[in-house]
Amino acid sequence: MVIFLLALTKSKQETMINGLFETHIEVSNMEEAIAFYSHTLNLELAHIDHPRRIAFLWLTPAKKAMLGLWEKPSPIQKRHFAFHCDLEFIRDNAVSWLEKNDLKPYNFLNNGCTDPMVFAWMPAIAIYFDDPDGNSLEFISMLDGQGQPELGVLSYADWQKITKTI
Fold first, then answer.
1. What is the CATH number of the domain that holds 108?
2. Are residue 150 and residue 107 in the same domain, yes or no?
């Protein structure tokens, strides 16, 4: 009986959370942050609370995820979060798109290389950049196949070579 109840409880917990709906970051200037996130990253402005110096943007057209921008006096606490993107965009266009929009792409290792890298344990491909306040943003896409944590972080080309030989 106890085993059944544990299994039932675990089953309910597994379906309880369907994703992350909202996250907040601190920004030094709300208007500049709104311009960056709405014009550069094409997020839809949902609401501005002028007296509280807070803005909300939709992350998806289906309004299933939201980003909150909270204006704070310096120094702000810098954060990191990732945007789920299509593999083809990250692999083929993200770096040039970032550069065209005056954003400096960098990889997870921040070693001067601007090629997207693969987190083999997931596996996922990602490229990073900063918003105007220095928050670390990431474009990420899951890759097909099983994770291989023993491979660490590697280039997409190396990932392809290794996974094609398996």
1. 3.10.180.10
2. yes
- Please write the tens of the pLDDT for every residue from 92-125: 999 999 999 999 999 999 999 999 999 999 999 9
| Separation of alpha carbons 43 and 108, rounded Å | 24
pLDDT in tens, 129-160: 999 999 999 999 999 999 999 999 999 999 99
Structure tokens at 70: 């909270």
Residues 96 and 52 in one domain: no
Distance CA 81, CA 139 (A): 9
Q: Is 81 helix (H, G, I), strand (E, B) or coil?
A: strand
Q: What's 93-131 look like in SS3?
A: HHHHHHHHCCCCCECCCCCCCCCCEEECCCCEEEEEEEC
Q: What three-state secondary structure class fits 90?
A: helix
Bridge partners (DSSP) listed for residue 125: 118, 141
At 143, the amino acid letter reads L
Helix %, strand %, coil % of the chain (to 5): 30, 30, 40
Read off the pLDDT of residues 70-90 as tens digits, 9 standing for 90 and up: 999 889 999 999 999 999 999
95 shares its domain with 127: yes
* Amino acid at position 2, single letter: V
Q: Note whether 35 and 88 are same-domain residues.
A: no
Is 13 among the domain residues? Answer: no
